[in-house]
TrEMBL record:
Gene3D superfamilies: Leucine-rich Repeat Variant (1.25.10.10). The keyword Cytoplasm applies. tRNA nucleus export receptor which facilitates tRNA translocation across the nuclear pore complex. This is Exportin-T. GO terms for molecular function: small GTPase binding; tRNA binding.
Length: 675
């Protein structure tokens, strides 16, 4: 009965501790088979439940929050009992009513500017959700009936009910989806009672008109719930048009609140994807209605667009999905995709010209951002394609090739290089997946532009693009790789050799990341069966490349790069290490690769407590094993008579190691560690 909130918060913690301690005792007693003491303990627990419920429903959330652990554990006990007494059933109902009441927002909650208090309530709501999930495990029927009662009563009179009560009624329906688990969201089949109850509630939700409620929390909860129960529309598709209209008008994407518009953009994209073929009758109508939401808003427009560029990405993706998944002919799909992408291409050309002439740096940045958004939007539409619905099958290759031709000139723009290159590079990554070999004619000139005046970060981001092309097209791109190999390497070496300030951590990190990217590139080339690309670069260049790999394996304290270097060396030995390998390579193996396998682990910085280092070490062992496989007894002889004695390794260990080298891998590794 105390009024002092601080005292009650402490008291609540105390009762929680007592309850949880008793429950821990009950669990141990049951485990030990002491049923008499377990029964006494259960009575002691039950005696505290009335107090627990009073504290749980207290208007102060801190007091309530402090007792949730006891409630949760108490429900866990009830779940294990074979049958519940009337009192226990009443307790479950008491907890359920408390949770429903406490989930409700209070008048002071600030939806427009959420601060610390609001964040605390959101966390508290998460705790209550866990309680609701546990209630569902104890008595799913009771939970379903209680939610249905609250939901129906509230939605019958939603126009005259306070927002927080309407929001919590819809929220409870939303929470049931997780509390009553089913596989793949199949809530509307299987258990008839449950399916009927959920179907009735969903029908009420979409036909009651509550989507027009004038409060953002209710609006958002409506859309979240509609998307959560998307399978409902397979059972009752007649409601799809009404829900689509809610998404598209002032209730959703055109709402006065930016927060609602933003969240709705994402949810709309999910809704459309989930309905798939059921969207067919509405495709053109929806595309017309969202057209103005997809406008690129250049900086000089001055008007505030309804959606941010991030939100527009979802709208473009949705448009792409509608077109690609439609049952239209390839010709019709092509027309619709062209209608979608042509305005972007036209705007792009105009904005790029404006950027070339812009003097003011702020204006340059604004224009570059806008150009980047245009590329990003075009890229996002391509997410709709899949292995089944490829760009070719939909007749859309030409449109995307036009986009490529429109966007690539941005690579030669001297202003705002980083922003523009990043956007076009991402688009190229997508097009390699979508257009396959049709993209190849564009790669040489794009690469040439991206290699001009580049910094460590540019190169680091460009190399994955080349890796993607190499791994995907292999010998098809061999001529291009031959031609580009040394220019790329020269650009990399130039950046790596730039002097850096001694304490400049970020420059050192950028160089480390670039070095890793460089080795990853060599690994892709050798691993894709393209080692001739390296071999054809002339003896001097080949030697230089090989020495950088030895250096990476031994000299830099970076286990990730070291591991990659040993993978490269192992692959090169496998490809070139036989009797018919390139002239001089066998010498290189003995003079440099074998020593690298022993010098790297001997470095002070080689830390065997680090997992990445252990992986690097095992690649060292694999490299030695590969050398033995390719060179045979000659390798054993070199290790036994020349190299290992020069390191003063004990003869018996040399003997043991050379024997192990001729055994399966695990033995090699063990003996290698000994050396």
């Amino acid at each position: 009965q105390e009024d002092d909130v601080d005292f009650l918060a402490r008291f609540s913690k105390l009762v929680n501790g007592m309850g949880q301690a008793l429950i821990a005792s009950w669990t141990k007693l049951i485990k030990n088979g002491d049923m008499k003491s377990a029964q006494d303990t259960l009575q002691a627990i039950e005696a505290k439940v009335a107090l627990m419920l009073q504290l749980l429903i207290h208007e102060d959330d801190d007091i309530s929050s402090n007792i949730i652990g006891f409630c949760y554990d108490y429900l866990h006990i009830l779940k294990q009992l074979s049958a519940l007494s009337d009192q226990q059933k009443a307790n479950v109902e008491g907890i359920m009513l408390a949770v429903m009441k406490k989930l409700t927002y209070d008048e002071e909650y600030n939806f427009e500017n959420e601060g610390e208090d609001e964040a605390m309530f959101v966390e508290y709501r998460k705790q209550l959700k866990l309680l609701l999930d546990r209630l569902a495990q104890v008595s799913p029927e009771l939970l379903l009936a209680s939610v249905r009662r609250v939901f129906n009563t509230t939605l019958q009179n939603w126009q005259t009910t306070r927002f927080m009560e309407v929001e919590v009624a819809i929220r409870l329906l939303y929470m049931l989806a997780e509390a009553l688990p089913v596989s793949h969201g199949a809530h509307f089949s299987g258990d008839v009672t449950k399916a009927t109850a959920l179907q009735d509630m969903m029908r009420t939700l979409v036909t009651s008109g509550v989507s027009a409620y004038q409060h953002t929390s209710v609006t958002l909860e409506f859309f979240e719930t509609v998307v959560r129960y998307e399978k409902f529309f397979a059972v009752e598709p007649q409601h799809i048009p009404a829900v689509l209209m809610a998404f598209l008008d002032h209730r959703g994407l055109r709402h006065t609140s930016p927060k609602v518009r933003s969240r709705t953009a994402y949810l709309f994209s999910r809704f459309v994807k989930s309905l798939n073929k059921q969207m067919n009758p509405f495709i053109e109508d929806v595309l017309n209605r969202i057209q103005d939401l997809m406008e690129l808003s250049p900086p000089e427009n001055g008007y505030q667009a309804l959606l941010s560029s991030d939100d527009q990405l979802f709208i473009y993706e949705t448009a792409g999905v509608l077109i690609v998944n439609s049952e239209y002919s390839a010709e019709r799909k092509q027309v619709l995709m062209r209608n979608l992408l042509t305005p972007l291409m036209e705007k792009f050309k105009v904005l790029l010209e404006k950027l070339m002439m812009a003097q003011d740096e702020d204006r340059q940045m604004a224009l570059a951002d806008c150009l980047n958004h245009a590329v990003g939007f075009a890229s996002r539409t391509s997410k709709a394609f899949s292995n089944k619905q490829t760009v070719k099958q939909c007749g859309c290759s030409e449109v995307y090739l036009d986009c490529l031709q429109t966007f690539l000139p941005a690579l030669s723009c001297p202003l705002q290089k980083e922003v523009l290159r990043s956007g076009v590079r991402t688009f190229l990554h997508r097009m390699i997946i979508c257009l396959e070999e049709e993209v190849l004619p564009f790669i040489p000139s794009a690469s040439e532009h991206m290699l001009k005046d580049c910094e460590a970060k540019d190169l680091q981001e460009f190399i994955p693009l080349i890796n993607q092309i190499t791994a995907k097209f292999k010998t098809q791109v061999s001529p291009f790789l031959q031609q580009m190999f040394m220019p790329l390497l020269r650009a990399i070496f130039e950046v790596l050799l730039l002097p850096a300030e001694e304490n400049d951590q970020s420059a050192a990190l950028e160089k480390q990341m670039l070095r890793r990217s460089y080795f990853a590139f060599l690994q892709t080339v050798t691993g894709s069966g393209m080692s001739e690309v390296i071999a054809n670069q002339g003896a001097e260049n080949v030697e230089r490349v090989l020495f950088t790999v030895i250096q990476g394996a031994v000299d830099y304290p970076d286990p990730i790069a070291q591991k990659t270097c040993f993978i490269i060396l192992s692959k090169l030995v496998e490809l070139w290490g036989g009797k018919d390998g390139p002239v001089g390579f066998a010498d290189f193996v003995y003079k440099h690769i074998v020593p690298a396998c022993f010098l790297a682990p001997l470095k002070q910085t080689f830390d065997l407590a680090d997992a990445q280092t252990v992986l690097a070490l095992s690649e060292c062992a694999v490299t030695l094993k590969t050398i033995h496989l390719k060179r045979g007894p000659e390798c054993i002889q070199y290790l036994q008579q020349e190299y290992l004695p020069s390191l003063q390794v004990a003869p018996e260990i040399i003997q043991e190691f050379c024997q192990a080298l001729q055994q399966p891998d695990a033995k090699v590794f063990k003996n290698y560690l000994k050396v």
